[in-house]
Write a structure and sequence with these properties.
Oligomer: single chain
Largest sheet: none
Distance between the termini: 13 Å
Helix content: over 70%
Order of helices and strands: HHHHHHHHHHHHHHHHHHHHHH
Length: 486
């Protein structure tokens, strides 16, 4: 049989997997979540979430990918049976629907890196106006979206070794270096201590607040990529000798470290340079504006800000690009499992990403709707992963993962998959739906508003119906894995 692509080294795989996990959410979402939900307490719960939800799911994904040598569609088919192929179809579809607008966000990062190089963020500039004008400049948004997805396509086109592995060995170390530089400058600013206290000093009263736990678990699930199918896809190209527990924990802790570095770069800067603590706290309440308005406006007030700003936005661009690469690879992998060549698959996915990303590039409200709907759907993808492990047999899977592994899983891992992970899913999703209903009690059911429960349920039901109807087609179209020469 013909041998297919594989990662040359464990370092290459780990770099790619960390790049997959570390994204823009580490930089603009984690800092404000940590600041608002207890500082050091949030960080501790965030670490617990990694151990109880994210890492176990990453391990299941890696086990499925390595065992079946197929992407999510074929992986679910061969792992737990043809009747469940639709679960893999759901996972691929959700990831692609996110990719369509994530390429736009990657383009934003590229635009702001260019602006910072041009010295656009200078004293007295209205950064809110810059952001508003850019958001409503459709052609410019489309240009940077095309630039981001085109660059990603060139990398994927070159394959795993010459493309994905090689570029992530550059992107990921550089990302950490840039975040460390930004963090080092931030914590040396006069008055930065208040921001560090806000981030790391535990507010123990928040430990009794359910929102702290639920936000930390949600952030971990989205940040690490658990349930996306990305780790499953990368695992297709690994050796059977690779240590699954060790690799997945390395990826999880690497993602957490990137989030902490981002927090140290963002929060001390805001508290040191904002007019007062109240203004700093107000800045932390705006997800996208936190980075593109507040920080962009504070860099000119910082000594050396003209240097730090490009470094920071380049770090954010690298984070976005490394995640986008993994998402596009997942789509290409699905087509390759249908029998397409890598080159043909890559071109098709890039064209689809560009075309279906145009509404998000042209209409900010459409992007917000898609982020609202499909970001939540990732939790459902994670639940399918849990169900797959439970059907296969958690204890059987644990023994297979432990075979040849230096870091061996105990029976606690089986207990997590059988009881704790399903409970986490039900609690977190139930809480999100409850919150969404209470935010808009009069029209929460409306299916055509930007951020309602109704729009989530409508789009989820449409996708669920499609993948169920196409289940037999997905079974037939997905081929058998080729030899990887393990």
């Amino acid at each position: 049989m013909t041998q297919r692509e594989h990662f040359v080294s464990r370092l290459g795989f780990v770099a790619a997997a960390i790049g997959m996990a570390v994204g823009t959410g580490n930089i603009w979402r984690f800092p404000r979540m940590a600041a608002q939900y207890g500082g050091g307490v949030f960080v501790l719960v965030y670490l617990l979430a990694l151990l109880l939800w994210s890492a176990p799911l990453l391990m299941v994904e890696m086990a499925i990918g390595r065992k079946t040598r197929l992407g999510p569609v074929g992986g679910f088919r061969d792992f737990i049976g043809e009747s469940y192929t639709w679960m893999g179809g759901w996972m691929v579809a959700v990831c692609m629907l996110i990719t369509f607008y994530y390429a736009v966000i990657t383009g934003w990062c590229a635009k702001y890196f260019v602006l910072s190089l041009q010295g656009a963020f200078r004293e007295g500039v209205d950064t809110a106006t810059i952001w508003h004008n850019f958001q409503h400049n459709r052609m410019e948004n489309i240009f940077f979206q095309a630039l981001a997805i085109g660059l990603c396509g060139l990398i994927i086109y070159r394959g795993i070794q010459k493309g994905v592995e090689r570029i992530n060995k550059i992107l990921v170390p550089s990302l950490f270096v840039f975040l460390a530089i930004a963090a080092a400058r931030a914590i040396t600013l006069p008055g930065a201590g208040l921001g560090l206290s806000y981030l790391f000093v535990p507010d123990w009263s928040k430990l009794a607040d359910p929102a702290t736990w639920l936000q930390a678990f949600t952030q971990s699930a989205w940040s690490t990529g658990a349930g996306w199918g990305l780790m499953l896809t990368y695992a297709v190209y690994t050796s059977k000798k690779d240590d699954i527990p060790q690799n997945c924990l390395t990826v999880g802790f690497g993602d957490n470290c990137a989030a902490l570095l981002a927090g140290m770069a963002v929060i001390p800067t805001i508290f040191a340079l904002a007019p007062d603590p109240a203004a700093a706290r107000a800045s932390l309440g705006d997800n996208m504006g936190l980075t593109f308005i507040s920080l962009a406006g504070l860099f000119p007030k910082m000594k050396g800000g003209l240097i730090v700003a490009p470094v920071f936005f380049l770090a954010m661009l690298f984070a976005a690009l490394s995640s986008l690469i993994a998402q596009v690879e997942l789509g290409a992998r699905a087509l390759m499992d249908f029998g397409w060549s890598r080159k043909k698959s890559t071109v098709m996915i890039i064209l689809l990403c560009f075309l279906f990303g145009l509404p998000s590039a042209a209409f900010p409200s459409f992007l917000l709707n898609q982020d609202w709907v499909w970001g939540m759907a990732l939790l459902v993808s994670g639940f399918w992963t849990i169900l797959a492990a439970r059907k296969y047999g958690p204890e059987k899977l644990r023994r297979e993962i432990n075979a040849g592994a230096e870091l061996r899983l105990g029976r606690w891992w089986t207990v997590i998959l059988r009881y704790i992970s399903p409970l986490i899913f039900l609690t977190v999703t139930g809480w999100w739906f409850y919150q969404a209903i209470t935010w808009d009690k009069t029209s929460w059911w409306h299916p055509f508003k930007t951020s309602t429960v109704g729009t989530i349920l409508l789009q989820w039901l449409i996708l669920l119906a499609l993948v169920l109807l196409l289940n037999k087609h997905l079974v037939r179209r997905t081929g058998k894995p080729l030899d990887y020469g393990d």
